[in-house]
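#help-structures
NK: newbie question, is this the right format to request a structure? protein is Putative membrane protein
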Amino acid sequence: MTTAETEWRKLDRRTVVVSVLRTAGLVAVGALPAVVAVSGRFSLALAAVTVGPAMVLIIGAVAIGDDIRWRRTSYRIGAERVELVSGIVVRKRRSLATERIRSVDVTAGLLLRVFGLAHVKIGTGEQTGAGESSLSLHPVAAAEGERLRRELLDRPAVRERAAAADGTLSRIDPSWIRFAPVSVLTPAIGGAAFGAVLQVAEWFGMQEGVISWTLDQLRAFPLVVSVLAFVAAGLVVGVVGSLLWFVEMWWDYRLEREPGGTLRVRRGLLTTRSVSLEERRLRGVEVVEPLGNRLLGAGRVDAVATGLSRQKEGERTDTKTLQPAAPRAEADRVAALVLREEVSPTASVRLRGHPRAARGRRVRWALLTVLVAVAPLLVLGLVLTPVLLHLAWICALVLTPVAVAIAFDAYRNLGHGITGGYLVARHGAVRRSTVALQRRGVIGWTARQSIFQRRRGLLTLTATTAAGGGAYSVHDVGESEGLTFAEEAVPDLFGPFLERT
C-alpha cells in the first residue's frame, strides 16, 4: 500500500443531495394524500401552505444532519486493516482485517445511479452479533466502489490456480422469463395489488365508493362467474407483476469467476447489484425447484457458503442465489462450473430411495392437514348455517386427492447418495431441494427419531455445517441404511459410536 492509499478518506459529498431528494420524495408521498383527504380535492395552494413549510423544515434538518454525518465519517484502506470512523455524538471506530474479508457487495439504487454513486458493504462472512462482521460505506463514487471490490478481494495466492477457469459462467437468457409467472409470488402480487388500490382509495376518501362499485359489477353476474372473474383479474395482475419483478431483479444477469478465486453475480435494472463470493467459503450448491418451476423443468442454483446462513440488518435474502430459475440442465451445468467439477454432483449420482414407511408418514400428514382445514367448517356449519357443511364436504372432496398426490410426490423425491467428495440429499414436493454438500464441510451428524419413526424403523439424519442454512437433513431414512450412509460419508464422526453386526 502506498501512503496515499493509507490516508483517511471521506464518503462522497453528494450523499447530502441524495438524502435531501429522498426525504423530499417521502414527505411528498406521505403528505399530499393527507391534504386531499382533508380538503376533498387536490389544491396546489393548500398543499404549498400546509406541506411546503413542513417540507422545508424536514429537508433542512436532513441536509444539516447528513452534512455533519459526512464530515464526521472517514474510512481508510490499509495493508492489514480496513477502518471506519463514524458517529456524531458517540464516536465509533470499527475495523476489519483485510485477510479475513470474504465479500465486497456493491449496490446502487436508481437515485444513486443518477449521481454515479454506490453503496459498498465489506464483510468477513462471519456470523457475529450487531453487525461486527461488516462495514458499510454509503455512498462512495461508483468507480471507487469497483476499485475497492477488486483491491480487497484480490487473492494472489490463488490467482494462478483460478486463472484457467476465469470468465463468464452464465448470463441471462430472455426465455427464462417464462418461469417467473409460475412462482408463489404471482398470487401474492395479485392480492397486494387489490390491497394497494383500496389503500389509495382510502387516502382520497373513496374506499367505500370503490367497494360499492365493485360489488355492483359482481352482482350483475352469477356468483361462480363473479368469483372466477375476480380470481382471474388477480392472476393477470400477478403475472404482469411477476414478469416486471423478474426483469428488475435479473436484468443483465451475469455470473463470473474473477482472478483470485471470486464468484461475482451482477444483475438489476433500476437497482444494480454486484454480489461477490469467495470460493474458499463455498461448501456446495443447492438446486431448488419450486413446484411451478419443476413442472416446467426448471430450477435455480443457490450457494452453500459460510457467512450466508442468516440475513441480518435488512440484508436481501437472495444474496446466496447464483442463478435464477433456468432449465434444469442449465442449472446442473452452472453448478458443475461453480464447484469446478466435470459433472454436477446434483445430477451425477443415482439417489437411493427411502422405505415405504416414509410414504405412509407423508400420506397421514397430508390427510391430517385436510382435516385441520375442514374441521372448522364442520363445526361452524353445525352451529351457524348448513351452507358451511356443504362447503366443508366440497373442500374435503377437492383437497384430499390433491394432498395425497403431493404426499406421494414428496415420497418419490426423497433420496440420498454419495459421489466423490460430496454427499447429496433431496426432499420436498412444493419446494424440492437437492443439496450437494462437501463431505469435508460436515462438522457433525445428528440422528433424530420420534416415537412414530421408531415404531417404523425410520430416522432423520442432519448434517451440521458452518455454511448455508447450517444443517441439511436426510428425512425418514431406514435406521441401518441411514447410519451406514453417515459413516460412509464422514467416517470419523458416527463410526466410533456404531455397533457392527
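mod (FA): yep, format's fine, and the C-alpha cells are attached above. The first helix runs from residue 15 to 39.
NK: thank you!
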